[in-house]
């Protein structure tokens, strides 16, 4: 069977490396021991929802009206500007499938950034060009603009994962206007609730080539239901509807999403974001007291990025003590960098106690 698979496998998939998700990285070897997961930028809150099983025997709506209308109202756009999908990851794939010809077209990314832009493109045999961020993690606008007429999609993450930085509005405006007649500029706002005033969703009418990606996975604490949104011009939405699966949103997901997007659900989300912001500030203050640690990037999301020379030993020490954070050092300009997802006050303090303990042990051994 292995020989048959090798024979039939698409050429572009043979050497493809899968995305190293937080769960995939630690899927094995944890046994029955309870782990504290602070490595996937998930919310630490688990909110309760009611689910009605009466319609489970029917196929769900492709684009549930209640979800579309609720998210459009929340985002300040029209329903015709809104598409719901299986997480923002599916939105990335739909854009590539709809607008890029395999083995012919290309997309542009700005690393260090979210890894799924490149992997999704490579999966569909679409080339990936790179315009790395400047050393301060701002956009290298001249390098980006040099790709005019060479790419169909420009992916920009703001706030950016894993640097926690937002994109300067003037820089982003330059990019969107530069590609106005040649490419879609896709602004990934997965973490926008932590920097709400910087959203570009209210600029869709001004820039027809602008696309905004959103998700319920982060601030709304619903990573487990896989529900994301693409906000764009009606023509773009209609193109995506040509390639989306017939039933992308399961009925339970639609019900939970509608409840999360109710007035009370949004208020709860905003309260939890405020709590996470306060916890993030406390974590930063504690990390800044450690001589071995250098904070990197900014704090416009629910995580903190820092650099330390002993990153491998620290990671192993935390894993040995059942705390999981994320190693980002493989990304460009992020050597020796680790990322902490903000958890509950108790989780954060337990983590910091371990980090302080590690550096005390290191110092005593020298």
Question: How would you describe what is shown here?
Answer:
With 366 residues, this protein is α/β, with parallel strands linked by helices. The chain is 37% helix and 14% strand. It has 13 helices and 13 strands. The strands form 3 sheets. A 7-stranded mixed beta sheet has the order 2-8-7-6-5-3-4, with helices on both faces. Strand 9 and strand 10 form a beta hairpin. The longest helix is centred in the last third of the chain and has 25 residues, at 263-287.
Short structural summary:
By secondary structure, this protein is an alpha/beta fold.
Features:
366 residues; alpha/beta; seven-stranded mixed β-sheet; four-stranded antiparallel β-sheet; 13 helices; 13 strands; 37% helix; globular
Structural class: alpha/beta
* Secondary structure: number of strands: 13
| Spans where pLDDT lies below 50 across 5 or more residues | none
Largest sheet: 7 strands, mixed
Order of helices and strands: HHHEHEHEHEHEHEEEHHHEEHEEEH
Overall form: globular
Mean pLDDT: 94
Spatially, the strands of the biggest sheet line up as 2-8-7-6-5-3-4
* Straight-line N-to-C gap: 54 Å
What is the percent of helical residues? 25-40%
**Percentage of residues in strands:** 5-15%
Rg of Cα set = 21 Å
Work out the oligomeric state of the chains in this entry.
single chain
The number of distinct helices, counting runs of at least 4 residues, comes to: 13
Topology:
Layout: H1 2-8, H2 11-14, H3 22-25, E1 36-37, H4 65-75, E2 82-85, H5 87-99, E3 106-109, H6 116-123, E4 127-130, H7 141-145, E5 153-157, H8 169-178, E6 184-188, E7 210-215, E8 228-232, H9 234-241, H10 251-260, H11 263-287, E9 294-296, E10 303-307, H12 311-320, E11 323-324, E12 326-327, E13 337-341, H13 345-365
Parallel strand pairs: 1-11, 3-4, 3-5, 5-6, 6-7
Antiparallel strand pairs: 2-8, 7-8, 9-10, 10-13, 12-13
